[in-house]
Amino acid sequence: MDVAVLRSFVAVVDNGGVTRAAGVLNLTQSAVSMQIKRLEELLGFALFDRVGRKLVPTAAGEQLLGYARKLVALNDEAVTRLMHPAFEGVLRFGVPHDLVYPVIPQVLQQFVRAFPRVKIQLETGFTAGLHASFARGELDIILTTETQLKEGGETLAELPLVWYGRQEGHAFQKRPLPLAYARTCVFRPQVTRALDASGLAWDMVVDTEADASVTAMVGADLAVIALLKGQEIAGLAPLPRGHGLPDLPLQKVNLYQASGTMPDVLAHFTQLLEAGFSTIKAEAA
């Protein structure tokens, strides 16, 4: 079996569909679909069932998945050992809480396969704090959510803010509207301004520096929050159509990286981030 085809199969399983897998692999959707079709023809059985908008592996696909992961990992290890310099060091990466899922775990997994001897230190926080740490030289690369791009940065995607609440919850129907935001979240003033402009009364029911407290309040159906479109947080979901809340502005997902620190390693990491967010950008369009 072709390792490239197996890699596409694993990516479709991990990402729940062809579109996201294509972005992660930096391939077209049609190329990934053709690879899956070739693999199914070779093996003589279907690998996926469609459940809603997601592709989930069949029983036979589940059996293949374990072997496919091992074969792909073994191939990557051999290529890395034989063809790439043994890069060593620490890559310090900062990312906002609300940008971790779904892209970052996949990026980290791919990066570690390519550079197994580079240690990643992951820091999560709010955009303002990440900028401050980066300015002090404490981080090598950061992602931010902002309305504008600062000097030296690169915009990976522009994503809309959308309203989220507990799945099948009713907090969005209450007036004044209960909101949950950390004090330093950059979305907080934008959301309150939009509500004020629409004439809709609101109440900040949590005042904290801890992102977990915010998620707990929204998950308990005691508040709502606006997040970047495409975020995957257990128990939360975009509000249903006709929720009556105002539209919110686009946000830039920006990348900033330091110069002079393991340039080859940083370049590869940046490419993985760009590929991951290109898929999210396409889905949000």
Describe the fold and architecture:
It contains 9 helices and 11 strands. It is an alpha/beta fold and 285 residues long. It has helices at residues 3-15, 18-25, 29-43, 59-83, 103-114, 127-135, 187-198, 211-219, 263-284; strands spanning 48-51, 54-57, 89-96, 118-125, 141-146, 154-166, 177-182, 202-208, 225-228, 236-238, 250-257. Helix 1 packs across helix 4. The protein has 3 domains: 3-83, Orthogonal Bundle (Arc Repressor Mutant, subunit A); 89-158 and 251-284, 3-Layer(aba) Sandwich (D-Maltodextrin-Binding Protein, domain 2), CATH 3.40.190; 159-250, 3-Layer(aba) Sandwich (D-Maltodextrin-Binding Protein, domain 2). The longest helix has 25 residues, at 59-83.
Topology:
Elements: H1 3-15, H2 18-25, H3 29-43, E1 48-51, E2 54-57, H4 59-83, E3 89-96, H5 103-114, E4 118-125, H6 127-135, E5 141-146, E6 154-166, E7 177-182, H7 187-198, E8 202-208, H8 211-219, E9 225-228, E10 236-238, E11 250-257, H9 263-284
Keywords, please?
globular, 285 residues, two-stranded antiparallel sheet, 7-stranded mixed β-sheet, alpha/beta, D-Maltodextrin-Binding Protein, domain 2, 9 helices, 44% helix, Arc Repressor Mutant, subunit A
Short description:
The protein has 285 residues and is α/β, with parallel strands linked by helices. The chain is built from 9 helices and 11 strands.
User: If helices are DSSP runs of H or I spanning 4 or more residues, what is the number of helices?
Assistant: 9
Provide the residue-averaged pLDDT.
90
Using only C-alpha atoms, the radius of gyration works out to 21 Å
Domain count: the total is: 3
- The structure class reads alpha/beta
Report how far apart the termini are.
Answer: 35 Å
